[in-house]
From TrEMBL:
GO terms for cellular component: membrane. InterPro entries: Chemotax_Me-accpt_rcpt, MCPsignal_dom. GO terms for biological process: chemotaxis; signal transduction. This is Chemotaxis protein. SUPFAM superfamilies: Methyl-accepting chemotaxis protein (MCP) signaling domain (SSF58104). It comes from the Bacteria. The keyword Acetylation does not apply. It comes from Falsihalocynthiibacter arcticus. GO terms for molecular function: transmembrane signaling receptor activity. Keywords: Membrane, Transducer, Transmembrane, Transmembrane helix. PANTHER family: METHYL-ACCEPTING CHEMOTAXIS PROTEIN CTPL, METHYL-ACCEPTING CHEMOTAXIS PROTEIN MCPB.
C-alpha cells in the first residue's frame, strides 16, 4: 500500500525528496572539494610535464655539449701531440745552435787574445822604429858636421865630403822610412784596437746568446712538460666525457619511461577532472530539481532571497529603460574598456554608471540577511561585475595584492562559477566552489544565483556567496 504523502503549503512533499536534496548538496560539497584537489594535482602535473620537457632539453644540450667536448678534446690532443713534436725539434735545434754559438764565442775570445798579442808586438815595433828614427837623426847631424869639416879641409876633404853627403842622404831616407813605418804602425794599432773592441762586443753578445739559449732551452723544456701534462689531462677528459655519454644513453630510456608515465597520469587526471566537473553539474541539477519538487533544503531561505532580489533587479532595469535612464541597447552592450592605471585591470562598460546608481541599495541589504553571506553582486553573461558591495569597491592603490582583495568591482570573473551564474536561465542555481584564500589555503563556499531577465532577454544573474558554517 502506497503511503499517504504529507502536504506543506498545499504541495505534496515526500521526506525522501528532502533527504535527496540534502544528500545531493552534501555530495556536491565533497565533489567540489575533490575537484579542487584534482585541479591542484592537474596544475602540478602539467608543471612537472613542463619541467620534464625542460629537463629533456637540458639533457639534449648536455649530450650535444659532451659531443662537442669530445671533439674539442680530440683536437686539443692532436694539437698537443703536434706541438710537443715541434717543441722537441725546437729544443734540439736550439741546443745545436747553442753549441755552434759557444764555438763562435770561444773563437772570438781567442781572436781577442791574439789581438792583444799583436797589439803588444806592434807596440814593440813602434819602440824599435822610434829608436831607428832617433839614430837617423843623430846620423844626419854627424853627416852635417862631416860636410862642414870637409869644406874646411878644402881639396883634401872633397872625398870625405862626398861620403858625408851620401850619409846625410841615407839618414834622410831612413828618417822618412821610419816616419812612414810609424804612421803605418799607428794606423795598424788603431785598426787592431777597433777590432779588439768589436771582438770584445761580439764575445759579450755571444755570451748573452749562450745565456739566452740556456734560458730558452729551460723554457722549452717546461713547455714540453706542460704539453705532455695537457695531453694526459685531455685523455682523462675524453675518458670522462665518454663515461658521461654512456651514462646519458643508459639514462635516456628510463627518463623517457618516467616522462611517459607522467604524461599518462596527467591525461588521466585531466579526464578525471572533466568527469568530476560533470558530476558537479549533475549534483547541482539534483539539488535544483528536488527543491523545485518541494523538497526542503538548508539553503531554502537563501534560494527565496536570491529569487526575490533577481526580480527586484529585473524590475529596476526595466524601470530605468521606461524612464529613459538607460537604453535597451546600452544595457546589453558588452563593450568593455580598460581603466588606465589599474592592476588587476578594471573595466568600464556602457551600463556601468547606471549600475553604480541602482544596484547598491539592492545588494547591500542582502549582507544583513545572514552573517554567513560574504557578498552579493550582479554579473552579465561574460562574468563582468560592474558594481560590487562597498567593502569590495575600494579605491585602487599601488599594491596589486591589496587591489585583488579590495577592488573587485568593474572586473571580469570568467571562471566556471561566474560564467554559469551569468548564463543560467533556471529559477536559481546553487553552486559549490573552493575560494582561494591565499597561501595555499582554500575554504568551501556556496554560490547561489538567479537570472536577471529584462523584457524577456537574459542580461545575466545576481549572485549571493555564503559560507557553509
Amino acid at each position: 500500500m502506497i503511503p499517504a504523502p504529507e502536504f506543506v503549503n498545499g504541495q505534496a512533499v515526500d521526506s525522501r525528496i528532502s533527504t535527496l536534496s540534502r544528500t545531493a548538496s552534501a555530495l556536491g560539497y565533497e565533489i567540489v572539494d575533490i575537484a579542487g584537489f584534482l585541479d591542484l594535482i592537474n596544475e602540478k602535473t602539467h608543471s612537472q610535464l613542463g619541467t620534464l620537457a625542460e629537463v629533456r632539453k637540458g639533457a639534449a644540450r648536455v649530450s650535444e655539449a659532451n659531443s662537442a667536448v669530445l671533439l674539442a678534446v680530440k683536437k686539443v690532443s692532436d694539437a698537443s701531440f703536434q706541438m710537443n713534436g715541434a717543441v722537441e725539434t725546437s729544443m734540439a735545434d736550439i741546443r745545436k745552435t747553442s753549441g755552434q754559438t759557444k764555438d763562435v764565442a770561444e773563437w772570438v775570445q781567442t781572436i781577442d787574445e791574439r789581438m792583444t798579442t799583436v797589439e803588444a808586438t806592434l807596440l814593440g815595433v813602434q819602440e824599435n822604429n822610434d829608436a831607428i828614427a832617433k839614430i837617423a837623426r843623430q846620423v844626419n847631424i854627424l853627416a852635417i858636421n862631416a860636410k862642414i869639416e870637409a869644406a874646411r879641409a878644402g881639396d883634401a876633404g872633397r872625398g870625405f865630403a862626398v861620403v858625408a853627403e851620401a850619409i846625410n842622404e841615407l839618414s834622410h831616407k831612413t828618417a822618412a822610412a821610419a816616419a812612414g813605418i810609424s804612421d803605418n804602425i799607428t794606423s795598424l794599432s788603431g785598426w787592431i784596437g777597433s777590432m779588439k773592441t768589436e771582438a770584445g762586443g761580439i764575445s759579450e753578445k755571444a755570451t748573452s746568446v749562450l745565456t739566452g739559449a740556456e734560458l730558452t732551452d729551460t723554457a722549452l723544456t717546461g713547455i714540453s712538460e706542460s704539453v705532455k701534462l695537457s695531453m694526459a689531462q685531455a685523455s682523462q677528459i675524453a675518458a670522462d666525457a665518454e663515461n658521461v655519454r654512456a651514462a646519458g644513453q643508459e639514462f635516456e630510456p628510463s627518463f623517457n619511461l618516467i616522462g611517459g608515465s607522467v604524461e599518462e597520469a596527467a591525461e588521466g587526471i585531466s579526464q578525471a577532472f572533466t568527469r568530476v566537473q560533470a558530476l558537479i553539474d549533475r549534483s547541482e541539477s539534483i539539488v535544483q530539481t528536488t527543491v523545485e519538487m518541494g523538497g526542503t533544503s538548508d539553503d531554502i531561505s537563501f534560494i527565496n532571497l536570491v529569487k526575490e532580489r533577481a526580480t527586484m533587479v529585473s524590475n529596476t532595469f526595466e524601470a530605468g529603460i521606461i524612464e529613459g535612464a538607460i537604453g535597451m541597447s546600452q544595457l546589453f552592450d558588452q563593450t568593455y574598456s580598460d581603466i588606465a592605471g589599474t592592476n588587476p585591470v578594471q573595466k568600464m562598460a556602457p551600463f556601468t554608471s547606471f549600475m553604480d546608481r541602482v544596484l547598491p541599495i539592492i545588494q547591500e541589504e542582502v549582507l544583513t540577511f545572514d552573517e554567513r553571506i560574504v557578498f552579493c553582486a550582479c554579473v552579465d553573461r561574460n562574468g563582468y561585475l560592474p558594481t560590487h558591495n562597498k567593502k569590495f569597491s575600494q579605491k585602487p592603490s599601488h599594491d596589486p595584492a591589496w587591489n585583488t582583495a579590495n577592488c573587485r568591482n568593474r572586473r571580469i570573473f570568467d571562471d566556471r562559477v561566474g560564467l554559469k551564474s551569468g548564463n543560467n536561465k533556471e529559477p536559481f542555481l546553487l553552486q559549490v566552489y573552493r575560494r582561494d584564500m591565499g597561501g595555499g589555503e582554500f575554504t568551501m563556499m556556496k554560490d547561489l544565483s538567479a537570472p536577471i531577465i529584462v523584457q524577456g532577454r537574459l542580461w545575466g544573474g545576481i549572485r549571493i556567496a555564503y559560507n557553509f558554517k
